[in-house]
Amino acid sequence: MNDTAAFFRRNEVQKILRLLIDKELTTITPSLSYEFGVCYEAISREIKRDDKEIAAILEELSKLKILEQDVTGNIGVCPICSSHKLMVELRCPSCKSSKIVKGIMLEHIKCGYVDLEEKFKSGDRYVCPKCNKPLTTIGVDYRKPSVVYKCLDCNSLSPTAAKHHLCIKGHSFEEQNLIMKPVITYKFDLENRFLVEKELLEFDTVLNNFREEGWHIESPAYIEGESGVHHEFSFSIWFTQPTSALGWPDLVAEHCAEENEVSSTPLLAFQAKAMDVHSKEKILVAMPGLDENAKLLARGFSINTVEGSSAEEVKEKLKQTLLNIKQKRSKAVLEAEKAALEEALKELGGTIDRT
């Protein structure tokens, strides 16, 4: 199976492609947080997926030349588990002890004694701990070269401390083992929208033909079910234009895609949603297709199924499925009108010519 084709069939990939086109999303900017690490909020608030999964999809889209990468920063992560939730422990660079303190270094110019400032303090003045001479004038009696770290185990002084990292999952590692993870901004050139459109399963290109027939169609559709739960469908159809508020839809459709075959689990979830909104007709678009158990369930629940491995194949089959439903509905309407006419003639004492 073509890995690229399977990638483009995934629901979350289709949703990102649709965002690029519908919202003309030319820049996908990252944000940083301790809780989530690198986030792409313009995507995550729309498709409700894990940030790592979104980052992986954007990375793959850049490999396929749909998005361009621009490195705008970096964060450090654990070399073992890739967690960005790190704590830094400072250690003595000489003996590696973590028993160190930070302070201002003081140097007695005359005798050369060096230690932390607090060691020189005697009340409100400085006195050298080595020679007991008072230090009154900076630059003459003493100087303060810099901030230093003092080890309480080996008593060494150093202008820098060795950094040791601890991640939230308990892994411990030295500074040189820290992994630098780039923070990437992704850019989409609208002139390349054809690259997206050829992979995008765009239902409206099919549905617009039926809108012209007088059907009221919403794509995507958000409907509150009888249970009070709000459901999202790929599209919903009302066969007649509403005169006021929309009632229950006559048809609901769902798009499901998997790398291999769509199982019975998403089909059952779709059936439950369709029942909650009292839909008479149901269409499940499954890419590349349904497994055998799902096919049996679809027949049992009277779910129309559309299977295909490409967007073009699916759109052609969806068009035919909707035409079949339209034809079936027209036949049912005629039969209902005929039955009503027969009933009326009976009441009038007449008969209907069946030839």
The helix content is 25-40%
Q: Give the CATH class of the largest domain.
A: Alpha Beta
**Quaternary class:** single chain
Strand content: 25-35%
User: Main sheet, how many strands, which sense, barrel?
Assistant: 5 strands, antiparallel
Quote the average pLDDT. Answer: 88
The tally of structural domains comes to 3
Radius of gyration: 35 Å
CATH topology of the largest domain: Trna Endonuclease, Chain: A, domain 1
Number of strands: 23
Describe the structure.
Helix 7 (204-211) packs parallel to helix 10 and helix 8 packs parallel to helix 9. 24% of the residues are buried. This protein is rod-shaped. Helix 9 (292-300) links the parallel strand 22 (281-287) and strand 23 (304-307). It has three domains: 3-75 and 180-197, Arc Repressor Mutant, subunit A (Orthogonal Bundle); 93-160, no CATH class; 204-344, Trna Endonuclease, Chain: A, domain 1. The chain contains ten helices and 23 strands. It has 355 residues and is of the alpha+beta class.
